Amino acid sequence: MEPDFWHQKWESNVIGFHKNEANPFLVSHFASLVLAEASRVFVPLCGKTLDIGWLLSHGYRVVGIELSEIAVKQLFEELALTPTISQDQSLILYRADNIDIFVGDIFRLNKEQLGVVDAVYDRAAYVALPFEMRQRYSQHLIDITNRALQLLITFEYDQSLQNGPPFAISNQEINQHYQLTYDIHLLASEAVEGGLKGQCAATENVWLLRKALQKKVFDEESTHLPPRGRWKMMLPIIVLLAVGSFLAYQYNVDIKLATSGVVLAGFYTGVVSWLLGVITMVPIIGPLLVKVLTMSFIWLLNAIGYLVAYVAIKRGYSKDVLTYRGITIALIIGLVMGYVLGGL
């Protein structure tokens, strides 16, 4: 939107977007960011939102930017704070204890001016911008905050039924703009009571954008066919299949029994795939758990354990098998916990 659009809104006090209480999604989901006390939170296009007062009252420091100086003056008045006012390049800076608010165009705010931020709370910025500006905005935010994690709130509705702002944001667009930088988690999705502005049905979505553990780059190298070294990953599986076939032949396993084993293995694989899908939906630690549980080493260790247990039982060492399996399971649990804690 053009700056004059927002200036006119504040000058005429047509600010239906301003709420008279802290956003319920902020209250319910801000803890998902897992921030330390006194962490610095960036609130882009903040207006005079009561969310800032909520953040301050919970021990966080706040930095924001707002186009309208009218809104910023009202914000400090309502917080009962007397700011110091200074010029910072092309922006004006209002500052008080634990709060810094810039006045001006967010695209003129640079990383040095902003300083270090621990998280971004974006309730009203992304949805306020038209489609052609959102790509630029999302990348600018990533750059100036050094990929700080985000709590992002968006609306989803039929854009043809109503003009923004707030604009309709699809899940596909969120992935398009953020998936190369963040692991994206949908924390909540709720219907807007009474519809958006009372005109059309809409859903409000709450997103947690957490910095990806590894940078995702889709270039020619990563999209080519797997390299020749892939055989090293498949070799253990081939060996296990060969050993299984040899044991079945050696111990005269009935064909029906072998077939049943294959069916059970397929069923087990399906259950495991479903379980991993459920675990993935757990915010923060879910993707880490899935990543370590699908490591070839873990599966190989477990498979060897089953194989050794089978042979030992056949030879009459049942009691020793229980001890060995306990040690193996303890080792796997230790590896999983170590990997997850190291990745947080």
Summarize the structure in words.
- Helices cover 47% and strands 17% of the residues.
- It is an alpha/beta fold and 344 residues long.
- The protein has two domains: 3-211, 3-Layer(aba) Sandwich (Rossmann fold); 225-343, no CATH class.
- A nine-stranded mixed sheet has the order 3-4-5-2-1-6-7-9-8, sandwiched between helices.
- The relative contact order is 0.08.
**What's the pLDDT, averaged over the residues?**
79
Q: Count the helices. How many?
A: 13
What is the second-level CATH architecture of the largest domain? 3-Layer(aba) Sandwich
- Report the uncertain regions: 217-231
Shape: elongated
- Could you give me the name of the CATH homologous superfamily of the largest domain? Vaccinia Virus protein VP39
- Range of strand content: 15-25%
* Intertermini distance: 38 Å
Strand order of the largest sheet: 3-4-5-2-1-6-7-9-8
The biggest sheet, with number of strands, parallel, antiparallel or mixed sense and barrel status, is: 9 strands, mixed
Helix content: 40-55%
* CATH domain class name of the largest domain: Alpha Beta
Order of helical and strand elements: HHEHEHEEEHEHEHEEHHHHHH
Main attributes?
344 residues; alpha/beta; Rossmann fold; 2 domains; 13 helices; elongated
Brief sketch in words of this structure:
With about 350 residues, the chain is an alpha/beta fold.
